[in-house]
Amino acid sequence: MNNSVVQTFPLGFPWQTQDPFLFCVYHLDHYPKGNGELGPDPKLLEGRSLGNDFRIKDGWRMYHGTTIPGFPYHPHRGFETITIVNKGYCDHSDSLGAAGRFGEGDVQWMTAGRGVQHSEMFPLLNDDKENPLELFQIWLNLPKADKFVDPHFKMLWHEDIPVIKEINATVKVIAGNYRGNQANDPAPNSWAANNENEVAVWNIHIDSETEFILPKASTEVSRTLYFYEGDEIEIEGKKIKPNFGVVLDGAQETTIQVGQKQAHFLILQGKPIGEPVAKYGPFVMNNDAEIQQAMDEYRTTQFGGWPWPYPDNVHEKEKGRFAKYPDGDLVEK
């Protein structure tokens, strides 16, 4: 009998990750109707710690937003962000002049590289109904050799992302290869761009009262299963409740038995980079001297400055899903 379960742990905020991943957070906010200006009714903001509102109140949070929920401009260096928006929308703006509105299944892949500023705001587009948001943000490390590559911004539109429908499950293949089904190419300098690193980001939904077999990897990888919604499941005789993570031995298949509700999972997998990690807020380098250098350069250059009118920049309410790239190329969906 397989014994692929290495460890279980409760899911906090953020979620615990393994090399090559640095960070993973799950946002589930049941935002109310919009006020016509992409935010909630100002009366609903009373009693909140605006600018630092991370406590769930009435089912939602403003994060660092004051009138519109989200994260106004902030810098990054030395890693990548993968932002998966299953429900709702995210408005992106950055110091390269790139911008976008994505959601309802879209994924943004951004390489911060040598340094970029961006904002991530969650506009409440619907004034006649609620605006639920479900979003994962994953930080994938860059090896030392690639920490100073040029920043890169890429959209993976939901129409183009492989979604594998099995008898009792669906698997959204955001990165990697699932049973011969290859994801779209990631950003070009990503650790995930080399197939030998077996980086996988899969969002898996398994029907109730069924069994699902997670295939083994072909190389030595770290693998973490995040059970974020559902009923109790069982893996190889071990019962696991929702809001728990499971560190798995990727060299073995894993059989998941699902309880009375459909179960929802995120899988993060990859060959470890195996280099020292120094982190300070939005900067991830290999040592403390490089962190200090990043802070000094940001103070001096602002990583190119901020070309947008507001720190919490959002796009016109009427705009649909789109991506405007630094070279001026515009894609509208």
Automatic annotation (TrEMBL):
Gene3D superfamilies: Jelly Rolls. Residues 66-140 form the Pirin N-terminal domain. InterPro entries: Pirin, Pirin_C_dom, Pirin_N_dom, RmlC-like_jellyroll, RmlC_Cupin_sf. Coiled coil: none annotated. Pfam families: Pirin (PF02678), Pirin_C (PF05726). Residues 202-304 form the Pirin C-terminal domain. Belongs to the pirin family. This is Pirin family protein.
